[in-house]
Amino acid sequence: MRILRATLAGIVVIGLLSIPTAPATPLDGTRRITLGGVTVRLDLDTRQVITVNASRGWRARVSLWRKSEGRWVRRLIAFDGRTGYGGLVPGDQRVQGSGSTPLGTFPITESFGNAARPKATALPYHRVRRGDFWVQDNASRHYNTLRNKHQGGFRWWLPPSDPNSSERLRDYGRQYAWSIVIDYNRPDPVRHRGSGIFLHVNGDGPTAGCVSAPRWFLRKALARLRPGLHPVIAIGR
Question: Which of 164, 109, 156 shows the shortest CA–CA distance to 139?
Answer without folding.
Answer: 164
